[in-house]
User: What shape does this take?
Amino acid sequence: MERKMLVLDIDGTLTNSKKEITPKTKAAITSVLDKGHVVVIASGRPTPGTKKVCEELELSKYEGYVLSYNGARITRLGDKKVVHQKILDKKYIPAIFEYCVKNDMGMMTYEDNDAVTGTRIDEYMELEARINSIGLRSVENFTEYVDFPVNKCLLTKEDALAKAACEELNGIYKDELSIYRSEPFFVEIMPKGVDKAASLEILREILGIKKENIVACGDGFNDLSMIKYAHVGVCMANGCEECKKAADYIAPSNDEDGLCDVIEKYF
Assistant: This one.
């Protein structure tokens, strides 16, 4: 039997609207693991924010992997070893921070088990902290405070303004950074070349799994690259239109245990 790779986004894909993994979905994923296939969590969340779902699925027991920060860091769960990561050059942080202050946007990054910000705390930052079960701290002199390795920064603003900011920042940094939205109100600032597809290709090579044996499931803007990359790209019925257009298969929604349908069909 050739090993396959099942790649799962968390929010809107693996978890339902209550941010829960249903017993039915968990049982289906366990059946994939028991057959010797590899399950990978691929999320825009910081690494600590993936801990709960990884533990619930017992992925460390099965030598699973997590691609956090949209793939800027790849961690092997069995021994918690970081097998690959890309770091954001800090030279970009002051200018982006200044842009956020000028446009009344939120800006945050991640330090250990906390999110830290130098802008005013808004509802979207509070949501990010709550979803990931991490702290949220305001710091003075944000650009000086951030003297640690950064995998990504997250900008926050309501939908229309976040979209406009994403387009404007891409116009400025398109050859230097990866910038895209993961939610209507989140703009991700990443090292150039970082997205879920790029990190999956790195992990595929590490594990020696053929590309034709990769099934990737997602729903949001930041899942688009891996949906296009995988041999079978799956978008949940609750997913964005861009992902649906790119997908090879549209599964039932995350509130209908849509992953069970995927697993039955492809595993």
